[in-house]
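Renewal narrative, Specific Aim 1. Our central claim is that a sequence can be written position by position from structural information alone. The example that follows is taken directly from our test logs and has not been curated for this report. It begins with the structure tokens describing the chain, in the order in which they were read.
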């Protein structure tokens, strides 16, 4: 996991950010992630006149992940309209956790972190397993 090309991942996130539809918040976001099979998936935020149903960039990213063959997320970064790295919001950390390879890395405002560091003691698929009830 040491050979992640963060510069390239950030570039893809910035390209996604350029496609954001954020006329209400005027806060554009782009996200990109490396997948376990080597492909890269990305997404941008897509807002709505009904503000509460706007989609974060990570929604598009996980949709592309599923639509292009699934797999596990290995590394992730998201950026704002000023091309600064930002933190994924709380809900989106949960979206990422669902598809994270154990030990998945995120580039964050405080450096490289693991998914477990940014979403400790996460509720996840294992909590729903029959034998854990
Ligand atoms: N946003 C994202 O796309 N991802 C995040 O992780 C943080 C927030 C979007 C949602 C909304 O369109 C805008 O940023 C302002 O909150």
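The sequence written for that structure reads:
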């Amino acid at each position: 996991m040491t050979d992640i090309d963060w510069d390239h991942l950030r570039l893809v996130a910035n390209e996604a950010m350029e496609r954001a539809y954020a006329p209400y918040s005027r806060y554009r976001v782009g996200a990109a992630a490396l997948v376990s099979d080597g492909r890269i998936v990305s997404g941008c935020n897509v807002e709505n006149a009904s503000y509460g149903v706007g989609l974060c960039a990570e929604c598009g990213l996980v949709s592309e992940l599923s639509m292009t063959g699934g797999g596990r997320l290995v590394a992730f970064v998201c950026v704002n309209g000023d091309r600064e790295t930002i933190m994924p919001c709380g809900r989106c950390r949960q979206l990422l956790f669902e598809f994270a390879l154990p030990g998945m890395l995120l580039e964050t405002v405080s450096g490289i972190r693991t998914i477990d560091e940014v979403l400790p003691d996460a509720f996840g698929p294992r909590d729903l397993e029959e034998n854990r009830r």
